[in-house]
Amino acid sequence: MSPWPAEWDDVAMRMLASGIVQLAEQLRSESTVRIPYPVPLQRALDRISAMSLAVRATPPRSAMELLEWASRPFGQWPLRLRVEGMDAGEVLVAHGEPSKACLEWAVFSGDVEAEVREQRLLKAVLDKCRAHDRPDAYVAFRLLLVQRPAMSERDLTLQLARPELALTANEVRAAYRPAPPETTLGGYAAVCGGCRNLRMVDGRGRRVCREWDCPDPVSEAERLPAAEGVVWLSRELRMFIAGPGRAELRIVRALEDKGIRVGLWPDFDACDVLPEGLAWPADVKSWGNPVRLARRLTERPFRPPPGSERGFVVIAKEQTSGRPDYVRTVVRRCQWLRESKHIAVVTEQTYVNRVVARLRGEVR
Q: Is there a domain that residue 133 lies in?
């Protein structure tokens, strides 16, 4: 029995993740740390220090020491927070940046979600495309981010000249930022063959892929000359757009190989995938932890478009591979999913198999 209310642990984790994200945004825009620190980070320090003292654990002496805690595996923290959805081996800070776990925790907090670059940019694109009744422009924007998360400045200029991207040219430019120096070695940056992101140069001079969800982190797709300038999507866009986008495109390819046409992000993102001739929309997710995903779905349920026969929450194969309990955990932890008769949580392959079988008349 702890000496503080049960919700303190969860609140502390949310505040810490939020503070880390805000601090990272500050460093990106200003290249310096300003005092005072972001309010969520300071509040997390105060809360965790008080909790540590209450159980005679050594508290963090400063915000910098708390950030050092965040760089350790969660199971090694001096204070053991009782939170569901954080595995012992996960970290909140990886290679000096907010980790996938950190960003997933941070989006639970409404004030931080407004700070996430992905949310601001995507809303601007949606508003503009809706105002001009250009669903094709929205799809072209999303496809570019998924298929080309990294490219040379020259290639970006060529992309901006495409007619279907003219409407969102400003937003396309805003989505990409100069690649960090640690991506360049020997006069070029290497594009990973598994996820199309840039490979990083580690302390030993080796190129490694540090993307959380890369399906093939050892292959190299192409080399981008540093002299031409290299650009890369922001971390949030890589996580929330490009990551699940790879799964979305795999589903489309798998169904089209069976002769089934598929719509991507139809009706301005009413869903992610919609097979032609079958009202079975899919919402594709690529969250690292099934408990965090269940909490997200509890707070923001998937609402299939009007007229849908069934709806599917589809989990990217990078998350379910080797984790047979992932889907069951999501359902078990989300009450509305347990009770729903019309929405199912499935793997990529299960969704493809069910769509094919239904359109062939093998199942009803």
A: yes
